[in-house]
Amino acid sequence: MSRILVVEDDADVHALLQMLLEDAGHTVWSCTDGQAALTLATGTGQSPDLVLLDGALPGDLDGLDVARALRAHPLTAEVPVVMLTARSRPQDEAQGLEAGATEYVLKPFDTDALLDRVAALLG
């Protein structure tokens, strides 16, 4: 099926996303920080079909930085990016969408609704 890059530093959320997506038949690439996300998404010569991106990440690159970099790279410019975050202020969502997120999903999220969004974005 599809290749989905999961960028999530919370081990429990990461494990949940990996299990849900693999059970749905997807191949999951995963990492826990922004730099690794960019390496996986753009440095392998093969882009993911979709990115699930935590808004708050450890290190120098947060989710907004990663979203901007994905949009700027020719290999990933059109890849759907779902930002998963606990940042719930209206301006946070606006910033996420301006940075290049296709969808903005608040944590905690409904797993069935998330899988439906993933399926819709993958078409």
Automatic annotation (TrEMBL):
InterPro entries linked to this entry: CheY-like_superfamily, Sig_transdc_resp-reg_receiver, WalR-like
Entry keyword set: DNA-binding, Phosphoprotein, Transcription, Transcription regulation, Two-component regulatory system
Sites of 4-aspartylphosphate modification: D54
Domain Response regulatory: 3-122
PANTHER family: REGULATOR OF RPOS, TWO-COMPONENT RESPONSE REGULATOR ORR33
Protein name: Response regulator
Organism encoding this protein: Nocardioides cremeus
